[in-house]
Amino acid sequence: MVSLKCSLAKRKNKTNRRDRHSGYGSRKYIMEVLLRRLKVLERILKLLKGLLKKYWQDKKIEKQVYNDMYMKVKGNVYKNKRVFMESIHKFSREIKFSSLAKEPEATPEPQQGEL
């Protein structure tokens, strides 16, 4: 009886090496675990999107920042709220400084009497 079990185990190992017995039916438990992870990721994405929408409605960020950040959230760039908040502040600061740099400095024009 022992030799039969051993031979069956050898045969099963041989087929597993050839990637047999690895279909969906053999992986049902793993799929359940992965689905739980996916639910957690969906929850995080929903939270980040809601936070972004709230910032935009409160006029804390501009529409350009909102669009860029939304696409990054959708692309799973941010893993948590802290990293997300830091990037929002950094991105909005960069836009503010770049718009200030584009404005010409205020130089007084000479008046007619001074020429």
TrEMBL record:
This is Large ribosomal subunit protein eL19z. InterPro entries: 60S_ribosomal_eL19_sf, Ribosomal_eL19, Ribosomal_eL19_dom, Ribosomal_L19e_C. It holds the Pfam family Ribosomal_L19e_C. Residues 1-92 form the Large ribosomal subunit protein eL19 domain. It comes from the Eukaryota.
